[in-house]
Design brief:
This protein has 384 residues and is of the alpha/beta class. 41% of the residues lie in helices and 13% in strands. The chain has two domains: 11-238, Type I PLP-dependent aspartate aminotransferase-like (Major domain) (Aspartate Aminotransferase, domain 2, 3-Layer(aba) Sandwich), CATH 3.40.640.10; 241-383, Aspartate Aminotransferase, domain 1 (Alpha-Beta Complex), CATH 3.90.1150. A seven-stranded mixed sheet has the order 1-9-8-5-4-2-3, sandwiched between helices. A hairpin with a 2-residue loop joins strand 6 (165-166) and strand 7 (169-170).
Length: 384
Amino acid sequence: MISLAKPFFDEKEKEAVGRVLDSGWIMQGKRVADFETSIAEKCGSRHCIAVTSGTAALHICLMALGIKQGDGIIIPSFAWPAAANIAHLLGAKPIFVDSKTSDYNLNVDLLEKIIEQSISDGIRVKAIVPVHQFGAPCDISKVLEFAAKYNLKVIEDSACALGTKINGQQAGTFGVAGIFSFHPRKIITTAEGGAIITDSSDFAEKCRALRNHGNLVSAGLNYRMTDIQAAIGLVQLGKLKTILSKRKYIIETYLEILDGQDGITLPEYLSNSVRSENAASAVQTLMVLLDKDIDRDKIIARMAELKIETNTGSPAAHQLPIFAKTSDTCPAASELQKQGLALPLHAAMTKDDARKVAETLLDLIYPDTCEELQTAELETCLAE
């Protein structure tokens, strides 16, 4: 089976965890502090606060901003609904913005109209949570422009974007704060985990207190990362350049086969991000958009039969049952949810793996267009 995602581990992670176990100190300690320092240095931020997940990072950030009942939070619909769920749990209103089918990111051309309409509807709009979807940089300059005009705070959801640079600057460092996820599907992993980066000492202090029961001074949470997780993360961070290079190599293979093929649209940023010496995006998920007449779900099922794991890209949050009755329609996000297909992408893949995935996909969509993948090869795959 060619898996959709797979952590890039070797003996170094095992040895690092073993040293933590041998020390007898496994909760938040020196390894977490070292991991935070390393992340901050890598990103060019003054502060890093390691936590248990990317969702925990978003929860802490919105609480640190003082988000409360009745506030409005602007969020792209086509994104994992972590920020929307946190806003809802805090009593705030997620205000969904549609995305662009060209790069899957928030459509900034719609942003000002949505802010104006929300204010007109009596909503206290307090913040924007732009997402660098799948590691691709959103138009953060426009987001910041509108945020400044309407006095809104910006928390960047950079969960997938460690290694993504925007004009040489790490994604997540433009707003009040940025967050990362270290889930096993992300660029690097700590098994589960997340982090907040910020240049604001005051904001960092609030986040650290919220992470640790409010330091017993105010109400808080327990979102502390363990030294076991941080030990894994430190090794992974040391492999970041290698991991990005290996993933770039796999994407180049996909491009060679899929670029320009009928029925499949690649995100517009992909060619530039992979072929440029200074990659604009550390692509975390490679999602292609299938034409509307192609049954995406049948493709996923058939690929699984051929021992290739694929999946949907992301939900359109405005269509989820908890939000569907209160949110505006986002047609592009709906299309991306219905027709988006995530292909295997991880550092342990080979060029042959990527070629097999791409050619199998083409053969399933248009059997007569793929000359290299013969019927006998498909039968062999099924028999394995």
